[in-house]
Each structure stands twice: as C-alpha cells, then as structure tokens.
Write a structure and sequence with these properties.
The protein has 1 helix and 36 strands. β34 and β35 form a beta hairpin. The N and C termini lie far apart (71 Å).
C-alpha cells in the first residue's frame, strides 16, 4: 500500500498566509485606512537579510564565480554592511559589498571552493542577492552550474530528481546557525514513497556552521527511480537546500527547490532551442490533480499537442515528455487545474536538454513565484547572447521595468520598460553601457498582473551549449509595519 505525503505545517501556513494576505493587499482609503476602517500597514525596508550558498563543485578543474548585489541607490542614503564567508567556523569573508547598486565578485578554483553563509544589514539588506556560477569544462560533471543563494528554511520540494543509473543527485545542506540542524529526506517515485531499506533518510545531522552533501541513491539502495520528487524537511534548526545533478553524457547543473505547493504554477524561461523538455510534477496532499498544461509563447498560450493534460495521483510523481515544445521560441509552462473547482496543490520542475549526441547539456527550470514588487538575479555576462531574460504574464497584461546594474568592473546602468501581454513570454537582453565584468538584472512590477521571470546564462564550450537557468522571485525587501489606529501623542503633551 503506497504512502502519501501529507501537506506539512509549513505548506499549510503558506496557504493560510495566501488567504489572510488578501487583507494586507486591500488598497487604503485617502485617509490611510483600509475598507474596514482600520489603519493600513506601512511598508518598511527590511533591516537584515540572511543568505546561504551551497558548495560549488567536487571537481578539481571547476572554476567558480561568486557575485553579490543589493539593488538601490549608491552610498549616501544610510549605512549598512554585508559579507558572505565560508560555511565553517572562523572562515574568512569571500564577498563584502560596500554599497547598493554596485555588484561585487570573487572567483575560486577546484573542489575546495566553499559553501557560503552571510548576512546584510542596513541599506545593503533590502533585496540582497548572491549567485554561484561554476564552469567545468570536461568530465562527468561538465557544464555550467548556476544557483542563486537562498534564505535558510525548513521545508523544500525538489521534483525531477533521480536515483537511476547514470545519474548522481546530491542534496547540499548548509547550516548557517550556531546549533546543529536535523534533517529528513523522503523520495517519492511513480508508486509513492520509496522505502529507505538500508538507507538513512532520517535524522541527518548538519553540524553548526557547516555543510553536508547527501547522495540521493544512497537513501534507497537498489531502487532506481528515473524521475522522483525529494522532500527535505528539518526536525530541528534550518538549512539552505539545493540539489546538484550530474548525468552521464548530458552534463550537470543545480536543481533549485520548487515554489510552495499551489493549484496553479508557472515554470518560466525554457530556452528557445530546447531539444528535450520533461515535466515532472508531484501532489503532496490526499487528492489527485488533473492539470491543464499550456506553453506561454511570444504570441500567446498554446496547448502542446498530445500533452494538453497531466493526471497526477496523490503522493506519486508523474512525468510527461514535452520533447522540443518551444520550437525556436523561448517559452514558459503554465500549469493549472483542469477543473477550477478541483485545484489540488502541486509542485513541479522541468528537465531541459540542449544540443544532441555528445554535445548535450542539461539544465532545470523549477516552478517559481512571481517577481512581486522587485526581484534580482546576479552574475549576468555582457557577452553577446550570453544573458537572456524571460518574462511571463500568466493571467493579465503587465508592465515591468528591467534595470541592468553596472558591471563588477564598471559601466553605467541601463533600464527598459517592457509590456508583457497576458499568456505570453517575452525575452530581453539588456546590459550596462560600457559594462565590464558581471552585472545584475533587477525586475520591478509597474502595473498589471503578476509577472514570472527567469534568466538563462549561456557559456558555450567547444561546441557544447552550456547553460543554466535561474528563476527570479520577489526579494521581500520590505515588510508590513502596522500603523497605530489612534494618535496617542496627545498623551505626552
């Protein structure tokens, strides 16, 4: 009898937050109150941000670039500090940004390049972003591996992992805190929960200020799952979690966590020349999901012939091969309930392959949330066609502003406003004027419906279309601070 994955407390909390958050989004009246007469909450910049970055590579020939950036005006509008340092006690700083609006970078070679943890405060905290980009020219793990550093958490979903022969999928767990974290990892295949006979998938200890890697196939010895979903949770503490994938003859890349389970999902930024697109979805709850699958192309949303719907059984991983669905135009997958009255929460990701034969290269696109007010991705390259930004409006027309920062070696910022029609994906290549070195791209929503975004970074090598895709998500650079319902200052007069 198969075991099903229940919705966790974190998922339930997220769902409740989505419902109760409607009140916070209610427009205030002219006097600053909401529709119910209460004082509206003010939005204030966050005062501290924390990031965790996994260890880049186990290859001795790996070349890694670390980049960090905080959007905003240059120095002169307040003080702040930020640093990313190795995830070990008494480690030295690797990156120390000095002011908003200017990215900083560092490089490291070989397998000793460290995982990082760090914090930013003051003017450097709101929207603080960091990125790892690693290039491995040969070997089993060859390719461009890119991943955005994330805030630590307690609950992560990774659809599209595998324990099959020829695949090596490692979960990287990084603990930024002074107390040990205890982690559980569960794997769900097409028949439900894979029982860890002889494996140790529970009570995995991650020491303070350290990182640990776990080979997923070691958790279920002898069980080969071509497509599976990993669920990483903590019993104690919190961690940063990402999955690094190496596939024999196809390359390597990072698989970031999917956004929280939801009835509708957007998977933005599938490259135009994708030769193979495989969608992997999972239902954490007790109800099956019937999903409508659409591709948001530049001219509008279409249903892939023969793959218009996907049935996902509760607690099981489902797969559909979409082949070369983009056919020369970058696009994004839109997943929604076939019946709006039956919207079971799901998580999803796609495995993308570019090239053919010995020239194949692997990448992943997870479901991601909208850019919200603002989102940023670091380490874009000014080389021709190296950086492509994809923008998708799943439900309504929207207008955004895209800004390219100066490069790590100088240059002038550049910006452009883009209108994204409902149901379409628009692409953009934007770089700073006279920019040298890597730069950041920031997307701000100006009007209209939600927009989802992803950056494709292409760094070809000897005829191989090496690439990596990173989604952009709301940087949560502000927090709601309730205003006093009554002016009490008269009490002190």
């Amino acid at each position: 009898m198969k075991q099903r994955a229940p919705l966790t407390l974190a998922a339930v909390t997220a769902a409740l937050a989505a419902l109760t958050g409607l009140a916070a989004l209610t427009a205030p009246a002219a006097d600053g109150s909401t529709a119910d007469g209460k004082a509206a909450a003010a939005r204030m910049p966050v005062e501290r941000s924390l990031l965790v970055c996994p260890g880049p590579s186990s290859s001795d020939i790996a070349e890694t670039t670390y980049t960090a950036f905080t959007p905003g005006a240059p120095a002169g509008e307040g003080k702040g500090s930020a640093r990313l340092l190795g995830a070990t006690k008494d480690a030295k700083p690797v990156l120390e940004p000095k002011e908003p609006g200017k990215p900083v970078g560092a490089t490291a070679s070989g397998a000793d390049a460290p995982a990082l943890t760090g914090s930013a405060d003051g003017v450097l905290a709101p929207g603080w972003t960091a990125q790892l980009t690693t290039k491995v020219s040969v070997g089993r793990a060859r390719g461009v591996l890119g991943v955005g550093c994330t805030a630590p958490g307690t609950d992560f979903w990774f659809p599209a992992v595998s324990t099959a022969k020829g695949r090596e999928d490692y979960v990287h767990l990084t603990n930024p805190d002074d107390a040990a974290a205890i982690v559980d990892i569960k794997l769900f295949g097409p028949d439900g929960l894979a029982k860890p006979e002889g494996g140790a998938s529970e009570n995995i200890r991650v020491d303070p200020k350290s990182t640990k890697t776990v080979l997923l196939s070691s958790l279920v010895p002898g069980v080969q799952l071509a497509d599976a979903t990993a669920h990483v949770t903590t019993r104690a503490g919190r961690v940063g979690a990402s999955v690094q994938v190496a596939e024999e003859g196809v390359g390597a890349d990072w698989l970031p966590a999917s956004t929280d389970p939801a009835g509708s999902l957007v998977l933005p930024g599938i490259p135009a020349d994708a030769a193979s697109v495989r969608l992997v979805a999972f239902v954490p709850g007790d109800e099956d999901a019937d999903l409508k699958v659409r591709l948001a192309a530049p001219s509008g949303a279409i249903s892939p012939a023969g793959s218009e719907q996907l049935h996902v059984k509760a607690g099981m991983t489902a797969v559909v091969d979409l082949k070369d669905v983009t056919r020369g135009e970058a696009g994004s997958l839109l997943l929604g309930p076939a019946d709006a009255k039956k919207a079971a929460p799901v998580v999803a990701a796609v495995r993308v392959v570019r090239g053919s034969g010995a020239k194949q290269e692997l990448g992943f696109v997870p479901a991601s949330g909208p850019v919200g007010t603002r989102a940023t991705v670091a380490d874009n390259r000014p080389d021709e066609n190296a950086t492509v930004l994809s923008l998708t409006a799943p439900g309504a027309d929207a207008k955004v502003k895209v800004t390219a920062s100066p490069g790590t070696g100088g240059g002038e910022p550049a910006s452009q406003e883009v209108t994204v029609k409902a149901g379409t994906t628009q692409t953009l290549s934007l770089a700073p004027a006279g920019g040298k070195g890597s730069y950041a791209l920031t997307v701000e929503t100006l009007s209209g419906g939600p927009v989802h975004a992803a950056r494709t970074l292409s760094l070809p090598h000897e005829g191989i279309a090496m690439f990596t895709v990173q989604p952009l998500s709301d940087d949560h650079s502000t927090v709601a601070v309730p205003r006093a319902a009554q002016d009490l200052s008269v009490l002190t007069r």
